[in-house]
User: Which sequence fits this backbone?
């Protein structure tokens, strides 16, 4: 009985790029020398990957609490950007330019990180604000407070204002904050993009 299987189509050698007809669909190279080179290339790629992973682990070990604090804050701020996407500035109420991430929209703290470092990751204390209100007007706090009461209610605002319990954030806590808010930011980003595509 005749073999009805189709012969493999010609393909390009992964090493020398010459066209050849493989014996089977898994064959990547045209000759034994090319196959050896391909094997070495794959080994090198595996080694490079392992080296990069080791380097990442070594860098993580060298990070200080200050480094982790900064990275956790970046993750929280990114979450605030996507959570409040499309909303106006919490203080002045003007529309924010959301197309320029990292430039026109700030994660504005009601109680600043300088005066209340223990609230730096509190998401009720942080809202999207314009650069002018946040940086030039030091948060523009009177209208910020009025709009914040409207947004989260007077009880939560008073809780933030009266929360003076100091907290120490260790490295393990900061790692968790970074991980949690990185995932939350991605979730909100996907939701916003889906919403934009559907509109």
Assistant:
């Amino acid at each position: 009985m005749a073999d009805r299987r189709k012969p493999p189509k010609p393909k390009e050698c992964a090493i020398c790029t010459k066209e050849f007809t493989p014996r089977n669909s898994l064959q990547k190279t045209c000759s034994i020398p090319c196959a050896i080179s391909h094997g070495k290339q794959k080994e090198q790629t595996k080694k490079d990957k392992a080296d990069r992973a080791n380097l990442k682990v070594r860098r993580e070990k060298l990070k200080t609490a200050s480094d982790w604090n900064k990275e956790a804050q970046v993750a929280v701020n990114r979450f605030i950007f996507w959570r409040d996407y499309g909303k106006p500035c919490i203080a002045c109420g003007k529309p924010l330019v959301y197309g320029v991430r990292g430039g026109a929209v700030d994660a504005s703290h009601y109680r600043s990180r300088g005066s209340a470092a223990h609230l730096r990751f509190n998401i009720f204390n942080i809202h999207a604000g314009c650069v002018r209100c946040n940086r030039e007007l030091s948060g523009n706090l009177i209208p910020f407070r009025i709009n914040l009461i409207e947004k989260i209610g007077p009880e939560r605002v008073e809780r933030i204002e009266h929360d003076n319990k100091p907290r120490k954030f260790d490295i393990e806590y900061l790692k968790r904050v970074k991980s949690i808010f990185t995932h939350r930011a991605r979730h909100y980003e996907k939701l916003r993009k889906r919403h934009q595509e559907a509109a």
